[in-house]
Amino acid sequence: MKPSDYVKDKPVWCPGCGDFGVLRAVQQAFADLNLKQEDIVVVSGIGCSGKFSSDVMSYGFHGIHGRLLPVATGVKLANSDLTVVGIGGDGDGYSIGMNHFIHALRRNMNITYIVLDNRVYGLTKGQTSPTSDMDFPTKMAPVGSGIEPVHPISLAMAAGGSFVAQGFSSDVKELTGIIKEGIQYDGFSFINVFSPCVTFNHKNTYDWFRAHIVKLSSIEGYDPFSRAMAIEKAMDQTHLYTGLFYMDKNKKSYNTSSAYVPAVRSIAKQPLKKRDIDFKEVFS
Ligand SMILES: Cc1ncc(C[n+]2csc(CCOP(=O)(O)OP(=O)(O)O)c2C)c(N)n1
Ligand code: SF4
Ligand SMILES: [Mg+2]
Fold this sequence. Notes:
eight-stranded mixed beta sheet, binds iron/sulfur cluster, binds magnesium ion, alpha/beta, 12 helices, binds thiamine diphosphate, Rossmann fold, single chain, 8 strands
């Protein structure tokens, strides 16, 4: 497969939007993994980032704002053979959808969740988001919110995340590698991606990110299988680290660890027949 096999609609993002780089990385990762288009479901929420479900040639579900993870969870439960990739914004995932994010990390279903973190509400024209810097001025908060932003990586580690990574949209090569690892990981893979909004965020620009980013792969002795090292780096807010923070090789995904799941997980593959549900049979 080639990246162009996953091209569908022409994105309508502003010229220079960071989301273009993420789209390239997603399409490259699908191609490198040789995934069939009909075996992929891209689930998105509402936001500029929500365009992904219609821009990628695969099945797609453009859900409602903040609820892409419940939809992705349902899709995976219905047919566990599908590659389910959720793609949404920082507002979608860390504001209205925050509760789903925490429980998805805890539940550890085999889903890849990519957050396009531009530190602003892009689609609705530049309001403060949960990841906006506290002095980031917007119309609703002219001198900034004065509130410490959400730190997605430390939050994910604290919530028991088993695959936690961060990328930068203009480093398509590194991001492609992270997305491939995330899709191949049997569990919930969370990837926060710095994806500059060139129209409404004039603080966290490409150059600003470049000046603050440090690649974890450049740190001697960094071990992504060490939870302690991952937490230490996640808590360090003086740098923005990209790469794989943490991967738990031993934690089982929900699909394989729960005794209850096999009864419901392949709804899509069960023969169609009218029957009364016998719960003793279902859970035996
Ligand atoms: C339930 C609900 N609340 C609010 C909105 C309005 N709304 C649409 S997109 C959005 C925020 C978009 O920001 P983000 O999730 O960061 O995505 P971006 O556009 O930056 O990619 C909001 C508040 C909505 N569509 N639905
Ligand atoms: S408003 Fe921002 S996030 Fe939305 S398309 Fe334009 S640059 Fe991208
Ligand atoms: Mg945003």
